[in-house]
Amino acid sequence: MIRYEHVGLRYGIGPEVLEDVSFTLEPGSFHFLSGPSGAGKSSLLSLMYLGRMPTRGLIKMFGQNIGEMNRDQLASIRQRVGVVFQDFRLLGHMSTFDNVALPLRIQGRPEKEIKNNVTELLDWVGLGDHKFALPSTMSGGQQQRVAIARAVITRPRLLLADEPTGNLDDEIGFRLMALFDQLNRMGTTVVIATHNQQIMNKFAHNRLILDKGRMHIEEGTKKGGLRQRLEGVY
Prior knowledge:
The chain is an alpha/beta fold. The chain has two domains: 2-80 and 156-233, Rossmann fold (3-Layer(aba) Sandwich), CATH 3.40.50; 90-155, no CATH class. The chain has eight helices and ten strands. The protein has helices at residues 41-48, 71-78, 96-106, 111-124, 140-152, 170-185, 197-202, 226-230; strands spanning 2-10, 16-25, 30-34, 56-61, 64-65, 81-84, 158-162, 189-193, 206-211, 214-218. The strands form two sheets. Strands 6-7-8-3-9-10 form a six-stranded mixed sheet, sandwiched between helices. It is globular, with a radius of gyration of 18 Å. The protein starts with a strand and ends with a helix. The model is unreliable at 223-234 (pLDDT under 50).
């Protein structure tokens, strides 16, 4: 799915914020991305959704070298990636429903299908009563759930999320983690940047650990049997 070889990233003429990063993500894998503040997590995510290009090194996505792609080819790759941004990036003039429906409309899906899929997902994330609300009238946690619903509505091949449970209470946070886990079981490769040790401990996924721009990988260990407790949600 993704291969990085000796990737570096710097902004302007400053020092590298990512140094010699190498890793591989297999199709259908699930990884947490963690590390101290300022370690480079958001910078790595920006490379992964092609918001930036590396200063050096090789990046392959879906078997293709992104350094050899033209603008149209890069746009095609981006359409396979769902992103939950830390600042949400909702369109303020659009309702909750229309924000979530936007990726499906860009794909040209029939309106009946859009209505059914968006309504079902909004109910699932607890926003069924807010489908016509504008982002400015919603709390930070509600806006976050809209951003998550928009990212997953197309069942992307790769899902990237930057602190997706940061503004949510534990119940909603675990419920949304169950949604990510279900998407992963259906074949989506998932990478979630988080500081939440409780969530990382409850889900047995490997961890990409960034520290001072360098990365190592740790195997996840599950504690607490969350999968059994969440089966009813699916």
